[in-house]
């Protein structure tokens, strides 16, 4: 993600959306209208202006997946945009005990705020609480801690809405093509994870609303290898498919390989997360992949921006409230050939 793209990313870290047009809070007295100026809730100023110097600690799992690698890249690149931020990033790890030790080291080092994407939210809850109890605000990214006492703010994706938007897009495209009784397939991620269950439920609910249902379903493990293996099995079991949703674009590398190896092109496919690789294929429009539903690692960029504001006791420039919100849920936009250029800046390398 380039500096210019980061700089233009609107309300989360840009300047003055509400600006001089302050938000009216309404009259608070019983005086006749016009007898005095109404009380106003003013916008919180220009967040891009340098404030006090702050050190932000950052901890995330190992970059063994394109999406996770992009989380750390985005966090570091966002920190570089601010002259008043020093980022102290630990080495990514999938060892829970090691991540706990790394966060404790950041706490002991006296950082002004922490941004943590825990490998395991439950396991990292205690160290999040330790930071908060020591007066260090924590921005919890994506995998949520067990209690809100462990974080000042949570920011993450909307897994249920991801499935909903994939389902609505597929249903609308099938209706536009006058396809009746379609065979709709799903290549999920790890079924044991709540995020997979939420994505599948959203997908099912949206399709049901439109009078459709999931006909064929397999579950992979968010890797290209399992994506290829499970999709090959799916294709063998289903001689005809009309539409397919794959939960994860990293996994999608293997899904696409299985489809191409089988010589299948009678259906269209929707991906998940928003990798640059899939966006480029959507733009080229020369394969079955026609859309992807965002679950963008740019949430890590936003987390750094929010941690900076919290550490500087600032609010968000586009909001009248004096404090940064307690939670932000990112939106799972559907990226198609028609709008792909708009979202290419948040794409990540699978």
Please give a handful of descriptors for the protein shown:
350 residues, alpha/beta, Rossmann fold, six-stranded mixed β-sheet, 12 helices, elongated, disordered N terminus, Peripla_BP_I, Monosaccharide ABC transporter substrate-binding protein (CUT2 family), TAT_signal
Q: From the alpha-carbon coordinates, what is the Rg to the nearest angstrom?
A: 22 Å
What's the SSE pattern? Answer: HHEEEHEHEHEEHEHEHEHEHEHEEH
Quaternary organisation of the protein chains: single chain
Overall number of structural domains: 2
Number of strands: 14
- Find the CATH superfamily of the largest domain: Response regulator
Shape: elongated
Main sheet attributes: strand count, strand direction, barrel closure: 6 strands, parallel
Class by alpha and beta content: alpha/beta
Overall pLDDT: 89
CATH topology of the largest domain: Rossmann fold
What does this protein structure show overall?
- It is a single chain.
- The protein is an alpha/beta fold.
- The protein folds into two domains: 3-156 and 298-319, Rossmann fold (3-Layer(aba) Sandwich); 159-294, Response regulator (Rossmann fold, 3-Layer(aba) Sandwich).
- Helix content is 39%, strand content 17%.
- It has a six-stranded parallel sheet, with helices on both faces. Strands 9-8-10-11-12-14 form a six-stranded mixed sheet, with helices on both faces. The chain has a two-stranded antiparallel ribbon with strand order 1-2.
- Strand 3 (54-59), helix 3 and strand 4 (85-89) form a beta-alpha-beta unit.
- The protein is elongated.
- Mean pLDDT is 89; it is low at 1-44.
């Amino acid at each position: 993600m380039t500096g210019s793209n980061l700089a233009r990313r609107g309300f989360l870290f840009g300047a003055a959306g509400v600006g001089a047009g302050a938000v009216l809070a309404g009259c608070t007295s019983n005086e006749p209208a016009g007898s005095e100026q109404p009380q106003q809730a003013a916008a919180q100023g220009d967040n891009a202006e340098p404030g006090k110097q702050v050190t932000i600690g950052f901890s995330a799992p190992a970059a063994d997946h394109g999406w996770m690698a992009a989380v750390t890249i985005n966090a570091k690149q966002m920190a570089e945009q601010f002259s008043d931020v020093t980022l102290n990033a630990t080495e990514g790890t999938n060892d829970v005990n090691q991540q706990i030790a790394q966060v404790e080291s950041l706490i002991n080092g006296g950082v002004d705020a922490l941004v943590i994407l825990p490998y395991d939210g439950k396991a990292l809850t205690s160290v999040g609480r330790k930071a908060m109890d020591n007066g260090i605000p924590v921005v919890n990214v994506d995998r949520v801690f067990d209690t809100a006492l462990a974080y000042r703010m949570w920011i993450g994706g909307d897994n249920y809405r991801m499935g909903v938007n994939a389902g609505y897009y597929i249903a609308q495209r099938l209706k536009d093509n006058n396809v009746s009784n379609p065979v709709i397939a799903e290549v999920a991620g790890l079924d044991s994870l709540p995020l997979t269950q939420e994505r599948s439920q959203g997908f099912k609910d949206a399709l049901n609303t439109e009078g459709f249902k999931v006909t064929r379903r397999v579950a992979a493990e968010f890797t290209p290898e399992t994506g290829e293996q499970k999709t090959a099995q799916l294709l063998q079991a289903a001689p005809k498919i009309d539409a397919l949703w794959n939960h994860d674009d990293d996994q999608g590398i293997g899904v696409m390989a299985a489809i191409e190896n089988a010589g299948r092109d009678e259906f269209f496919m929707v991906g998940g997360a928003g990798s640059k690789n899939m966006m480029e294929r959507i733009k080229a429009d020369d394969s079955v992949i026609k859309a992807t539903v965002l679950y963008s690692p740019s949430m890590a960029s936003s987390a750094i921006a929010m941690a900076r504001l919290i550490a500087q006791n600032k609010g968000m420039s586009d909001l009248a409230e004096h404090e940064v919100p307690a939670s932000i849920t990112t939106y799972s936009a559907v990226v198609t050939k028609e709008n792909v250029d708009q979202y290419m800046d948040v794409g990540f390398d699978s």
